[in-house]
TrEMBL record:
Domain Fructose-1-6-bisphosphatase class 1 C-terminal residues, every copy: 280-409
PANTHER family documented for this protein: FRUCTOSE-1,6-BISPHOSPHATASE-RELATED (PTHR11556), FRUCTOSE-BISPHOSPHATASE (PTHR11556:SF18)
Chief place where the protein resides: plastid
Species assigned in the record: Gossypium trilobum
Keyword terms: Calvin cycle, Carbohydrate metabolism, Chloroplast, Disulfide bond, Hydrolase, Magnesium, Metal-binding, Plastid, Transit peptide
Stated name of the protein: fructose-bisphosphatase
Quaternary organization: Homotetramer.
Example GO molecular function: fructose 1,6-bisphosphate 1-phosphatase activity
Location in or out of the cell: Plastid, Chloroplast
Length: 410
């Protein structure tokens, strides 16, 4: 029993019990016959306590408990955004905008999973401003994004790939952020249950586009101001991200300080941090081009593709992968490396992808992860859009792979 308690407590207990169980007279006799008994016990216990191995301290126990907790701890998107706000990386207004976007992505993910059951496959019977047939979920997803952004009260301008022109949000009362997005990227994959995604980018507010509806300017003039304001180069982006809808639903985001990915846990209905500070590999062995257009490309690009098909030092050529969804291509590339290309061709002089809604946000993400994105001549993020739905060629991926491509295109 002495080994289980400290020296001071042992002595206190001994004297305390002696005082309670003996009279002053018997205590006097005890001291008379054993004048150094207490001292011998005290010193003996002290020596014994030093010699015995010390038990685990309270601090060590707490640390061990904390370590055990971290093995099971989950950090969701909301708590991560609050930490970024406390660190001064974003403000409270932008936190709310991002939360509203994540909510829209959850709703779209749910609809995609049930699309065949609730008859949301197939075309809508309408054509968007780019002349493309709209799927039912193109229209619904666009409405979901717009409603979530409007209800946040912090969005000033909404620019969607599915809308003819940017829209000024009447419901805003602070923030006034400009949000550009493609609600469903790769919508041709919906009917076959293949990979799709959503892409978004956020620009800071600009006084030129804070429209006063009571102003004498006409609505057309006000909209024209919005168009001018939205057409900013990608380097001005504050935030960019995408949501991947596949075997997992993955929300990937960059605030300009690294790239982080959150996977939707269906048990809790929360995006949980699963990939922290993603870094794209310096090189890779995967290329992603739609080679159905091979004969429409220029000879320099053909020579580059022919090179990739040749066996390398390991006796193997590059692997060709093409999903038909930019979100899926970029997500794989962030984790595995490689290069993706959507070049211009004889039929599409400016490429097929939209600069504002697709190329700029994805280039922002890739550069934050250490990659490179060009149009064949210049950096994608340096291009100043002249039109809202402007298209551009794009080559994006691991820095070594893009550098190799540039040598062929020079």
């Amino acid at each position: 029993m002495v080994q289980a308690i400290s020296t001071s407590s042992c002595c206190n207990i001994l004297f305390s019990k002696s005082h309670r169980s003996t009279s002053p007279h018997s205590l006097h006799r005890f001291n008379h016959y054993s004048p150094s008994f207490a001292h011998r016990i005290s010193t003996g216990v002290q020596r014994k306590a030093v010699e015995l191995p010390l038990p685990e301290t309270v601090t060590q126990q707490v640390q061990n408990k904390e370590q055990r907790k971290t093995q099971f701890a989950l950090e969701n998107l909301t708590s991560w955004l609050l930490k970024q706000e406390l660190a001064g990386n974003i403000d409270a207004e932008l936190t709310i905008v991002l939360s509203s976007i994540s909510l829209a992505c959850k709703q779209i993910a749910s609809l995609l999973q049930r699309s065949s059951i609730i008859n949301l496959t197939g075309g809508q019977g309408t054509i968007n401003v780019q002349g493309e047939d709209q799927k039912k979920l193109d229209v619904i997803s666009n409405e979901l994004f717009c409603n979530c952004l409007r209800s946040s009260g912090r969005t000033g301008i909404i620019a969607s790939e599915e809308e003819d022109i940017p829209v000024a949000v009447e419901e805003t009362y602070s923030g006034n952020y400009i949000v550009v997005f493609d609600p469903i990227d790769g919508s041709a994959n919906i009917d076959t249950a293949l990979t799709t995604g959503s892409i978004f980018g956020i620009y800071g507010p600009d006084e030129q586009c804070l429209i006063d509806l009571d102003d004498t300017s006409t609505l057309d003039q006000a909209r024209e101001k919005c168009i001018i304001n939205v057409c900013q180069p990608g380097r001005n982006l504050l935030v960019a991200g995408y949501c991947l809808y596949s075997s997992s639903v993955v929300f990937t985001i960059s605030l300009g300080k690294g790239v982080f990915a959150f996977t939707l846990d269906p048990t809790y209905g929360e995006f949980v941090l699963t990939h922290e500070n993603i870094k794209i590999p310096e090189s890779g062995k995967i290329y992603s081009f739609n080679e159905g257009n091979y004969d429409l490309w220029d000879d320099k690009l053909k020579n580059y593709l022919d090179h990739l098909r040749q066996p390398g030092s390991n006796g193997k050529p590059y692997s060709g992968r093409y999903i038909g969804c930019l979100v899926g291509e970029i997500h794989r590339m962030l984790l595995r490396g490689g290069i993706y290309g959507n070049p211009k061709n004889k039929n599409s002089k400016n490429g097929n992808l939209r600069l504002l809604y697709e190329c700029a946000p994805m280039s922002f993400l890739i550069e934050q992860a250490g990659g490179t994105a060009i149009d064949g001549v210049q950096r994608i993020l340096d291009i100043v859009p002249e039109q809202v739905h402007q298209r551009t060629p794009i080559f994006i991926g691991s820095p070594d792979e893009v550098q190799k491509l540039q040598k062929y295109l020079a």
